[in-house]
Design brief:
Blueprint (H helix, E strand, L loop, with lengths): L1 H12 L6 H12 L3 E5 L6 H12 L3 E5 L6 H5 E6 L4 E6 L6 E5 L6 H13 L1 E4 L2 E4 L5 E6 L12 H4 L2 E5 L6 H12 L12 H12 L5 H16 L3 E3 L3 H17 L7 H12 L4 E2 L10 H8 L6
Parallel strand pairs: 1-8, 1-9, 2-5, 5-8
Antiparallel strand pairs: 3-4, 6-7, 10-11
Helix pairs in contact: 1-2, 2-10, 8-10, 9-10, 10-11, 11-12
């Protein structure tokens, strides 16, 4: 299993050159059975990362392009009357896939964004008085452009909290971009194959949840979330959902690192991706040298009993 996961990282990194940390975080998110939000400028590889992960993990993939006129029915599906059978027949929308790319999710209206909430939280959709289950596993990888760009709507806090992680890809290094250009123009595109089947991936998810977390690690996570609630620097504290997300993600990160137990460094590695989009500064002019999650890391010593 570990060999297959290493191959998944290697295959994905062959497409997103120089982004091993972000690729490992994205795979950690899926192993923890969570949804992923990728925020960055257009053209940075957000869509490529989502599609590549679906390919190497052998997951059924669909893409929804979010626009200002997208309706919930365009995503969920619709009941159409069948004249031959004299009854309504449900035509499922693209959300009925194992991995759904919600591309440029913050370009859709709040009404359409909110249609994702039930699907992301409960793995089901309700339409015309009937509840339909989504495939298992079910992942949403949302991509969004920075809010200063035209035509964007901010995601509500309730929806941001449904994303287990948020990552940013950033610009590639000069060397990585050079390799990318040489690969493109030399017609040496990488051919990707699935490195594991659905059964293997689900077993890897189970293995990740079985990673041991000592009382000391649990207490470390609790002190981090408690500080966020008591600190005068942070307006939006971490919720109980966030504390569970920290533990799930840390276990998945440890499993990817070929360990069956947690250490403080696992929590520290995933904390920015899990906590940053959930936190908000109490000061409107916050311009600290680090991220908001860095406030937590600097305030809480993992060695303190």
């Amino acid at each position: 299993m570990q060999i297959q996961l290493s191959q998944a990282i290697e295959s994905t990194c062959s497409v997103l050159i120089g982004k091993q940390q972000q690729v490992k975080l994205a795979l950690t998110c899926l192993l923890a059975n969570g949804h992923l939000l990728i925020e960055d400028l257009p053209g940075m590889g957000k869509t490529t990362l989502a599609h590549t992960l679906a390919q190497v993990l052998g997951l059924q993939y669909s893409r929804i392009q979010f626009t200002s006129d997208l309706l919930p029915a365009d995503m969920l599906g619709i009941n159409i009357f069948d004249n031959n059978e004299q009854k309504f027949r449900f035509h499922p929308g693209p959300i009925f896939s194992e991995l759904v790319l919600a591309d440029e999710i913050n370009r859709a209206s709040p009404k359409t964004q909110s249609a994702l909430l039930e699907a992301m939280e409960e793995g089901q959709v309700s339409l015309d008085g009937e509840t339909r289950s989504l495939p298992s596993p079910f992942f949403v990888i949302g991509t969004q452009n920075p809010l200063h760009q035209s035509g964007t709507y901010p995601l509500p806090e309730s929806q941001l909290d449904r994303f287990l992680m948020r990552i940013k890809l950033g610009y590639p290094t000069l060397e990585a971009e050079k390799i990318m250009l040489q690969t493109q123009f030399n017609n040496k595109q990488v051919a990707l194959n699935a490195v594991m089947n659905l059964k293997d991936f689900q077993q890897a998810q189970i293995n990740a949840t079985n990673v041991h977390a000592s009382n000391a690690i649990i207490n470390y996570i609790l002190r981090l979330v408690t500080f966020s609630r008591e600190s005068q620097q942070l307006a939006n504290p971490l919720s109980p959902r966030a504390s569970k997300a920290l533990l799930r993600a840390a276990k998945a990160w440890a499993y990817l690192s070929n360990r069956n137990y947690l250490i403080p460094e696992d929590v520290q590695a995933i904390l920015p991706a899990v906590a940053e989009h959930r936190l908000r500064s109490a000061s409107s002019d916050f311009s600290g040298t680090g991220s908001l999650s860095q406030i937590l890391l600097e305030a809480i010593d993992p060695l303190t009993a």
